[in-house]
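Q: Fold this one first, please.
A: Sequence and structure below.
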Amino acid sequence: MANAILKGLADKKNAGVREASCDLLQILVEQGLGNAVEPFFYEKLMPTIVAETFADKEKVVREAAVQAVKSVVQVSSSWSVPIFLPILLEQIRTAGKWQVKTGSLEILNELVVSAPEQMARLMPDIIPTMTDAIWDTKSDVKKAARATLTTLCSLVSNKDIEKFIPALMYVGLSLPPSLLPPYATRC
């Protein structure tokens, strides 16, 4: 199954086949195969879908890819988050195409809803990447990163620092990472 989906995603001449491959993954997940597709999805499909299909030239294919990944994330075990979060964070940091970054940020937003405890535990890994993303050169990425960072901050459950989150967000969003002290980017 994974090979058939990968073959469809690799068909550069037919956008309909690429979109159908994303739709097939989403249908499989929605029909109850969510946990069954996790192993091959994270190992074989996730890197390809995020790095390549999120940046497809056809908007319908990009949207289908993001929706397919969202479907998988919604039904996945929260214990799988540490497996695929590094893939998303790496793409947010290094992708050359802004669509890959915004798609990855959309998936992070979905993870806050579907696996809040795991995402809260992984905040030390997430925040440095988000700090850089809010200063991306593309305005679409900046806007998505700021919205995602706001959503991520909703995971803070420490009543002692909860009241300082707006001030920290303001400082973090108003100063580029190069002007922050070294300890400020490593929360």
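Q: Good. Now the second chain.
A: Here it is, same layout.
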Amino acid sequence: MALLAILLPERVRTSASAEPAGETPPVRPGQEYAWVSSPDGEVVRTQGASPARLLPKATTVVAVLADSDVAWHRVRLPKAPAARLREALAGVLEDNLLDSGGGVHLALFPQAQAGQLTWVAAVHRDWLRAQIAAIERSGTIVDRVVPSSWPDHPPIGHFESADSADDDSSDGELALILSLI
């Protein structure tokens, strides 16, 4: 099982003092993605940064969100049929979300059970769709999207951009401790 983990770049946010000049494009032309590949999901084979069209091939592709792009909310999971769960979650979270539920992608903590407290991740939906679409246009299909960390649990993956004085590269290297799956 060859694994490719792609670190999605942090979402660009406009400052409150900036003139509103329309939406900032979510993906820059020639956008480079930091990535790491592994033959087994435990050992790093190669790592680098490249445009989507030059990403290595793998059987499993995981997109990893930066901590700043995920808002975590602790809620009691509503008892609702699967077809209406998104609507029910948006209702529970409406006071916590700056956007109406329609502009936000919501994801439940694994093993969440109706009626129990659980974590819900909220991510800017249009930005996430644009990032995934940019990668998939190059022929790399993303199998799943994961946060770089979860609240109240040990880390499931850790990305670090390491710049050191001994390193000849100016942009640093991406280091990953693999345990994403």
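Q: Anything worth noting on the second one?
A: The beta strands are 3-7, 32-38, 46-51, 60-65, 71-76, 104-108, 117-124, 144-147, 158-162, 173-177.
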